[in-house]
Amino acid sequence: MAIQSQRIRVLNDAEARSDGAYVLYLLQQANRAHFNPALEFAIEEANRLKLPLVACFGLLDGKSGFPEANARHYAFLLQGLADAAAGLEKRGVRFVMRKASPARIAIDLARDAALLVLDRGYLAIQKGWYAEIGQGFGGRIVQVEGDVVVPVETASSKHEYGARTLRPKLHKVWDDYIEPLRARRLTHKAGKGLPESEIDVSDPDAVLKGMSLDRDVPPVVRFKGGETEARRRLKAFLAGPFEGYGADRNKPEADAASHLSPYLHFGQISPVEIALAVRAAKVGDREDRSAYLEELVVRRELAMNHVFYTERYDRYAHAVPEWARKTLEEHADDPRPHRYTERQLAAGETHDRYWNAAQAEMRETGYMHNQLRMYWGKKILEWSPSPEEGFARTLRINNRYFLDGRDANSFTNVAWVYGLHDRPWAKRKVFGTVRYQSENSLRKFDANGYVKAVEALCEAERRGEKSCRTD
Predict the structure, then answer these.
(1) How far is CA 324 from CA 229, 244, 330, 435, in A?
(2) Is the model's pTM score more than 0.85?
(3) I need a labelling partner for 216 at 20 to 30 A (CA). Which of 45, 185, 279, 471 fits?
(4) Domain of 30?
(5) Confidence at residue 310, expressed as pLDDT on a 0 to 100 scale
(6) Would you call 62 helix, strand, or coil by DSSP?
(7) What is the DSSP letter of 172?
C-alpha cells in the first residue's frame, strides 16, 4: 500500500527546513480526507519530521474567481470542502481556508513550514499556480499525483491520436496503480500555535452567500457535494445499475450511469478507489467491468493527455486537428436550414424536442447523459454561423451549466465534436468529412422515455426535491 514512486515529483529539491513549525499541504485538486495520496505522503513527512500537518485551501472569489465558475459550481465545491474539513479534523490535521488564490495561500503559509506538499491537476490554470508557487517559495516542494489512475507522463510521453493508441499503454501498466492506499496515522496532531482558518466552511451555504460571484446559474439539489456522498453513490451504483452496465450504459432512460463525474471533477473521490470497488463488485460481469473501466480510465485519461500536451486546449485553432479545420472551413458557407442564437440554445428554444430535453437536463440539473452529449454538441455545430463560433458556444454553454464543466473531459469532448481523436468520414454539408450525428442516432434508445424522465427531473429541481433517479 505504498504510494507509487511515479506519483511523486520533487519540484524543488531543497532540504526540509529544520526550524519549520509544520508540514504544509495545499489541498486544491484532491478535495478529500481519504484515499488521497498527497495527504498520505504529507502525513508520512510530518511523522518523519515529528511535526503537525496543516492542510490549506485557497478560495478564489470575485473578479479573481475561477474562470467561468458560478454559484452552481461553488455550492458543490463548498459542500465537498465542508466534508473534507470534517474528515481532516478527525485525522488530527489543521484545515485552513482563506479567500486567496491557491498559489498565494501556499506561499504565505509556507513561510513557517518545513516543506510544502502539492496535489496535482492538469489544466493550464493549475500549472500556472504550481509555477507561481515554485517562484515564490524557495523551500522543499513535493507534488503527489492523485487525480488519475496512471500518471499522465507515465502513460504516454506525447499527445495521443485517440483511445486506440492510449488504451494498450494504460492496460499494460494500470494493475500497478489500481492498488489500495492505506490511511496513515498522524502522530503529532494539530494544536496551539498553528495557522487558523479565516472561513468556517462547516456552513457552506453561509460561505456561498458571502461570496461575490455569478448567481444566474443556481445550485442544484440533484447532486450534493462531498466524499461521503460520492461513496454513497458508488455503493448504490454497484448494488444496482452496475449489473448490466455494459449493455445499458448508452441508454439514458435505463439510468445505468454512476453519476460520479462531478465528484471526480472536484477531486471528491479517487478514480483508483472507484476502480478497486468496480473490480471487487459482487454483481455485474466481465463486460460490465470492462465497459466501466474504459470510461473511468481510458476515456478520462485520454482527456487528461489532451489538455496536458495541448497548450491552448480551449481554442479552436489549437484543439481541433488541421484536417478537421480544413474540411469545416471548406463547408463553412454551406446552407444551414436552422440557425439559433446562443441565448436560444441555452434556453432550449430549438425545433428539436430531444435536443431541448438534453439542454434542459443540463441547464436545470447540471448533468447530461454521455449518449446525449455528443448529439447535443454536433447540433450546435450544425446550427451555428461558423465552426469557430460553434466551438466557442459549445464550450461556454458546457462550462456554464455542467457541474463537471471546465474539466479535461469537457475540453476534450467539445474538441471531439469538431474532429479531435477521430478520423475523416463521408463528406456531407456543413460538416465536410467531420463525423456527423443525425436524429437517427436517437433510435438506439427510448428517446421519448428520456424526454419524460428529464421533465420529471426538472420538476423535482423546481420543487427542491432530490431526484429519485439518483437515490
Answers:
(1) 41, 36, 10, 10
(2) yes
(3) 471
(4) 7-147
(5) 98
(6) helix
(7) H
